[in-house]
Amino acid sequence: MNDSDGNANHYLYAVFLAVISAILFGAAVPASKFLLSSLNTFTLAGLLYLGAAMGTAPFAFKKTNRVFPWQMNRQNQFCLIGAIIFGGILAPVFMLFGLHQASAASVSLWLPLELAATAILGRFIFRDQLGLIGWLGLAGILAAGLLLCVGEASAGIRAGALVAVACLCWGFDNNFTALIDSLSPSQSAFWKGLCAGIFNLSLGFAGQSPALSLIGIAGALAVGMFAYGLSIALYIGASQSLGATRAQMIFAGGPFFGVILSLVFLGEAISAVQMIAAGALFGSLALVFLDKHRHAHFHNQLEHGHSHRHDDIHHNHPHQGIGADTRHTHVHKHEPAKHTHSHLSDLHHRHKH
User: Fold this and answer.
1) In terms of C-beta density within 10 A (0-12 exposed, 13-18 middle, 19 or more buried), how is residue 339 classed?
2) 270-299 burial by CB neighbour count: b if 16+ within 10 A, else e?
3) Strands 337-342, 294-299: pairing kind
4) What Rg do the C-alpha atoms of the chain give, in angstroms?
5) Helix then strand then coil, % of the chain, to nearest 5
6) Closest CA to 112 of 222, 248, 265
7) At what angle do helices 254-265 and 28-35 cross, to 10 degrees?
8) Residue 28's closest CA among 9, 47, 42?
9) Please, is 143 exposed, middle or buried when counting C-beta atoms within 10 Å of its C-beta (0-12, 13-18, 19+)?
10) I need a surface site. Which of 150, 156, 192, 289 has the fewest CB within 10 A?
11) Is there a contact between 37 and 100 (Cβ–Cβ < 8 Å)?
């Protein structure tokens, strides 16, 4: 096998990981709809996130450079606490309350509102950037969400509002998580799942009927482990090979897999309104991913630690025995620099423009 064959196989394997991660994530909503018949909202939310912690634990602590929250500086601790409160405690509870009132297919199609919330919060609070094409894509996502509310009749307004609040909370979570430079994504997901899971589970057990189903508990933990924990780990693995944009484009198919799984396993009927909304979402997501942000910008001197490779223009510090395409984590220093290139609002590009 020559190098080109090996690279092609590696690329296809990364695409496979991204597709599996999207399918697993898409399965969370229809599976949660089924589990709500035996578990209350807070119990299910807690078990899902404890399962996510279980699923990410092997990836979060497999390396020697383990970092714990109490070892981080105050800014990173603040961001992690924000991610736990908004993304781990509040968001799943609001989503499950909405799922009580609407079909799993519609709730799946409302989930891209998280992307819109993340982008809007990032623009006005966290100094993110978005171009005209991106704003058109976000407008399409919002329009599709409103269309689904109409399609779900009177309950659709209430359910859509609850899921929208959940997506707003996940938007805060995403922006807080993006600012954490002391933990890997898997480590952030583990601590969020563990802390939020224990909190919501405590509330759930206080209000849960005595006849708690052990099968329901095991099922909820399994859904959390695979649909949230393993899905996140696979997505991270895919993004490290495909790049964040390509991996996210595949992962964005999760809600559409959720619709298919709702049809197959829950026997839900897919309405014409849902099909139109799905088409609008697909086009809107494409616009968001086509959006480019490029301008001359200046980097101040910075010292931090995060997962990185040496095949980009921001990480050119020397190493012994580490290849340019090998991902690793350590504290490193950036010298002041000014340059122009297309970029996202990552750890190195939270500047004003």
Assistant:
1) exposed
2) eeebbeebbebbbebbebbbebebeeebee
3) antiparallel
4) 20
5) 70, 5, 25
6) 248
7) 40
8) 47
9) middle
10) 150
11) no
Distance separating alpha carbons of residues 344 and 64, to the nearest angstrom? 29
Amino acid at position 297, single letter = H
* Whole-number Å distance between alpha carbons of 342 and 292: 7
Q: For the chain, how far is it from start to end, CA to CA, in angstroms?
A: 48
DSSP codes of every residue in 60-83: HTSSS----GGGS-HHHHHHHHHH
CA distance 99 to 160: 9
What tokens appear for 153 in the block? 């009749």
Question: What is the C-alpha separation between 57 and 188, in angstroms, rounded?
Answer: 10
Q: Do 219 and 112 touch, CB atoms closer than 8 A?
A: no
What string of pLDDT tens digits covers the 353 residues of the chain? 455 555 667 778 888 999 999 999 999 999 999 999 989 999 999 999 999 999 999 888 876 567 788 888 999 999 999 999 999 999 999 999 999 999 999 999 999 999 888 888 888 886 666 778 888 988 999 999 988 887 776 678 899 999 999 999 999 998 898 888 888 888 999 999 999 999 999 999 887 665 678 889 999 999 999 999 999 989 888 877 776 667 777 888 999 999 999 999 999 988 899 999 999 998 988 888 787 655 454 556 656 555 556 666 666 666 665 655 665 666 667 666 655 545 444 444 444 44
Distance CA 343, CA 266 (A): 41
Residue 191 one-letter amino acid: W
What is the enclosing helix (H) or strand (E) of 295?
strand 294-299
- Residue 80: CB atoms within 10 A of its CB come to 23
Cα–Cα nearest to 270, from 104, 34, 155, 142: 104
**Token pair for 7:** 């690279």
Closest CA to 117 of 350, 288, 346, 291: 288
Helices (H), 179-316: 185-207, 214-223, 231-242, 244-251, 254-265, 272-290
